[in-house]
Request: fold
Amino acid sequence: MDTLAAAPDPDHLARRVREMIDNGQLNAARAVLAAVRRLSPPGPATAELAARLAIAAGQSDVAAAELDAAVAADPGHAGLRRLRADVRHRRGEHVPAAIDAAEAVVLDPHDASGKAILGVLMTELGRPADAVACLAEAVAAEPANPAYVEALAAAQAAGGATDLAAETLAAGIARCLGRVDLRNAAVLLAIRRRDFAAAEALAEAARRAGIADACLFGLLGHALSCLGRHADAADAYDAALKLGPHDPYVRHLVAAAGTLPGGDRAPSPYVRAVFEGYANRFEPHLVALGYRVPGLFRAALLRLAPWNATGEGAGPTLDLGCGTGLAGLALHDLPIRPLHGVDLAPRMLAQAAAKGIYASLREADILAVLAEPGPDYGLILAADVLCYFGALDPVLQAAFARMRPGGLMLVSTESPAPDEPDPPPWRLGPQGRFVHTAAYLRTEAEAAGFAVRCLAAETQRFENDAPVPGLLGILARP
Reply:
C-alpha cells in the first residue's frame, strides 16, 4: 500500500531556524528559512526570523530592509516594532529607534522588553527621568532580569541618583547572586563615585561568592591603585591578566601596575570604555578637581593673539579628544572658528554637541582623523590627550602634517614629580595615564618640525588635595 510523505510543518521549521540562529548555525538556518518562505505566505513571523538571522550575521542593512518592509505591511505589530527599534539602536539611529520602541509599548503595554528598550534609548538620548520611568516598570514586571536591572541603575546614575542606582544594583545582586555583569556594574559605579573602598568591598564580596572574572579583577586593581595600595593592585591585575590575557582594557591596566610591559599608547577600547561611563560626571568632577587646562589654553591664545597678524581668524580649529567640549567652551568666543571635534566616546560627544559650539563632531581615533586628507588647520588643541600616548612622535608628526604654515598646536600633558630622580622620557603611571618629561616633549615636537614657542610647567588639576604636575606646550608650524 502506497503512503504519502508528510508535508513539512512550517511552524516546526521556524522553530528549527530559531534554534540554529541561537546555536550559530547560520548557513543551515538560512537554508531552512528559505524552505519556510516557500511553504508560508509572507508575514511578521518570517520577517522576524529573517531579520534575526541578518543580525546574527552582522548584516544590519539587510535586517533593517526586512523590517522596514514588514512594518510597512503590518504597522500594528508590536514585535516587529521592538525588533526594528533594536536594529536601529545598533545602527546608532537613536531617535527613530525610540519612536519604534514607543510604538511597541503603546501596542503592547504589558510587554516588559519594549519598555526596557525604550528606557535604554531614553538614557542615551539624555532623558534619564523618562528612562527611569520605563525601566522601573520593566524591572517591576521581571525583577530577576539582570539586563533590566543594570539598565535601570544606569538610567538612575545618568540622572544623578547614584545612591539609588547603587541600591538598585544591590537588590539585583541579591536576586541573581551569580550574575557577574551586575557585580561589575556595582563595582564600576562605586569607582565612578570615587568611593574606592566601597568598590573594593563589592569586588571582594563577588570573589567570596565564587566569581572569577577578568573585568572584576581589573576593576578591583583600579580601585586598589586609587587607594594607593599598588602592590595589592598589581596582584589583582595579575589575576585579571590570567583570566583575560587578550583583553586590551585589562592589559593596559596591568601594564600601568608595572607587571606587564606597556604599549606606546592606551588602547582605544580602554579609552572609550573609561570615558563612556564617565561622561555624565566628567565636567563636575574635573571642576571639583580644579582643572586648569582650558583656562591655560585661553590665556595662551589671548597672549599670542594669532589672529592679529593678518586680520583673519586663527581657525579652522581641530579639538583632539574634545570630550564634553570643555576646551572648546573656553575658547569658542575667540576668532578660531570653525571648531571641529573628535573623540572616541559617543556619550562624551553627545555632551559636546549639546553646547552648540562645534561645526562638526566625529567619533573616531585621532590618529585616523589626522591621517586623512583634508583641510589644513590653523589651530589644533590637545587638552589632556597626550597622557594617553607614551611615544608622542606619531601624534605630533600627524598633527604637523595637517597644519597650515603659521598655525599653532596647544598641548598639555602630565609630567613626573619635580623631585623624581632621573625620570625616563615617558612612562605609564599607575592610574593608566602616561607622563612625559619636558625634554622629551621638546625633542619630539622639534623632530616633527614644530618650533616650540613655550613649554612651561603648569599644575593640571588637584587629586587628593595634591597638585598634578604637567606641561603646557605652545607649538608653531613655521
Summary: The longest strand covers residues 451-463.
